[in-house]
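fwd from M.: "can u put these together and see what the complex looks like"

so here's what she sent:
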Amino acid sequence: MPHQRPIRTRRAALGCVAALVAATSLAACSGGGADSSSGGSTITVAHGYTSVEAKEMDKLAAEWNAQHPKTKVTLQFNGGNDSALQKTVAGFTAGNYPDVAYEYGSSAAQLARQPKLVDLTAKVTAPGVDWSDFYPSERQAATVDGKVVGVPALVDNLALVYNKKLFQRAGVALPTASWTWQDFRTAAKKLTDASSHTYGWAYVNDGSEDTVWRFLAMLWQAGGDLLSPDNSKPAFDNAAGLAALTQLHDMAVVDKSVYLDTGNDNYLNLFNSGKIAMLWTGPWDLSSINSDVDYGVTLLPGYNGDHETISGPDLYLLFDHSSARSDTAFKFVTWLTSAKVNLQFSIATGDLPLRKSETSLPGYQQFLAKYPAEKVFVQNLNDIKHVRPNIPDYAQVSTAVGQMVQSVLLGQSSPAAALKSGADQVSSALAGS
Amino acid sequence: MTLTRAQSSRAQGRRPRTILPRPQPRTVVRPNRAGGPRRRVDALTGWAMITPSVLLIGLFGLVPVVWSFVLSFQQNDLQTPAQWVGLKNYRTLVHDPVFLQAIRHTLVYTVIFVPLTLVLSLIVAAALNRRIRGITVYRLAVFIPVVTSTIATGVIFSWLMDPEFGLVDAVLHKLHLPTFGFFASPGGALYAVVIMTVWGWVGFGALIFLAALQGVPQDLLEAAQIDGCSKRGAFWRIQVPLIRPVSGFLLVWLTINALQLFDEVYVTTKGGPLHATTVLVYYLYQEAFQYFHAGYAAAIAAVLFVAIVVITLVQLRLTRDPSEPAR
């Protein structure tokens, strides 16, 4: 991070005031240029894809440009999707923002306030869009206060990924789709071997959204929810919340069968080196599992037969430069996320289909043949019942819940005490905006 | 570490007066007040030469500083029109438990990091200030952490200090010593960050100290030796007092950097576990760029700015060489 040095002498300060005046006028001159000069209805699409996905994006954009010489698309790498929100907001401040931006679903509500955001509520009802073909959880994530703010771009969800060899070595039966929390806990304990530093399970314990969303899946399975239906107060300070936190507490603190990852970079390496037997993870990690690791995928262990998972749909958000450009942007995004084109993207990258109809296209069998492990994740898409609340204060709510889960995993507080203080903090986060 | 006044005046008392390097009277010829065309051309040339830097500093230094002061009186999410809220952000700060925690963490970090880095840098510099075979290699080795990217350092230390798979705990375990949770433990994470950053900064401090030590006139040391002063005595009584201005510079520089700690926390602990490493700038980042409370974050920045200015002024006064006239 660049450190600014205080300027001390008066003369330097005077010089800087002069410079300030000059700089401001310079900035004023150059400010408007960027928008008008690009002309026509050529649009920019900012995304954070890398490697295979970036290559496929380039290919698709080239395909579009060949077919639409008058409404071309320029792709722009945003430096990584983890900071896409920050980048986009900074772009608004500078008056230089893309027509289309790839954003995490959890950023939707924060960007919904943006005056430049294109309201898609009416647009998605157009006949060519077939909005209802997107999975319900995706549509819900794209909707803030009844307003459609984006188009689903990519969807992930969690399933249980396990290393078969470690199960065989420990003499534990492989996980099934009907596993209960207790089955999961017992297996994790048996798979843990302190002397060889082998763990049954790994949990991302950095207090970020990564910590939170795995907990949310458990909370929903246990019949609870994060917030009340009107998103005005916490709704997890009850038996469901206690059950979920107690499960985490029993595994991490009592059994010590969980590797607590301080960042989110370690667990996959450890899974690859046979130190961790089970992960709760999604399609994005599968491509990084070494080819010599024989792994299986099944549904998350369930509570009273509920194996609900959590999905994290990402979105394409459109920002207004001119109505012509917004039209182009919408046409491009609709094309990009159409069943045929998205399936082509999925076959190339291993990402999940976005639309229900993709699974009945002929190419889908090719997808399954190439990525057999994805089948469970596609199945999951039909069974997702909840989405995270789409509220501007979600980031703070998430921090509060992250702290709560962390305090339990680290054995710093009992599930009941953590639940209470977590609910208090969520309340004040909701009140403080 | 700089010497106390008593020590340094004692050291001065022992200096042989005749060869003591005295502050030279300033011999700069003051230009004629009336000036002439020559002087005006000189002034213009000077301004022309510094204009690019002045513009850049103005644009990227002063404008943001002024803007963030303005922001601190607003409620601003960087997207919708801002609202003026007067001193509300500052009033909220006073009662914000995380902010108060962040101040405590920042102070604890600074109070440990700065002296530790200074002392270790001085020792390393003294060790490197000699003519032996392969000294360049040693000097390079000490300096490498400085040029290593923070991200790389963070990733390596996360692994080294991993409580389960880390080398550090493995060695401690072998030696039957207690092991630590480091970044994973709420009680130890801040100290793990201290270890990591000291490792990263000692090379820088040593480099500056080394340059200063090499600037100490050799004849002073020889004279002291002839008078029967031991090497160690010469180091503490002659070299260290003579490099006082450099120590002062390092003290200020390291303190400013410590108060602005961010990168290392961002890479390793993200302020956790349980806010244990939430320092001021990290909290500021969270408020500004995760919650988009830009006005509130600007208020934190303003408080930090004032604190840094005050602390720096105090340090400069304390470390000023007493033999130099006050400016």
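replying to her w this: Chain A touches chain B through 49 residues (CB under 8 Å).
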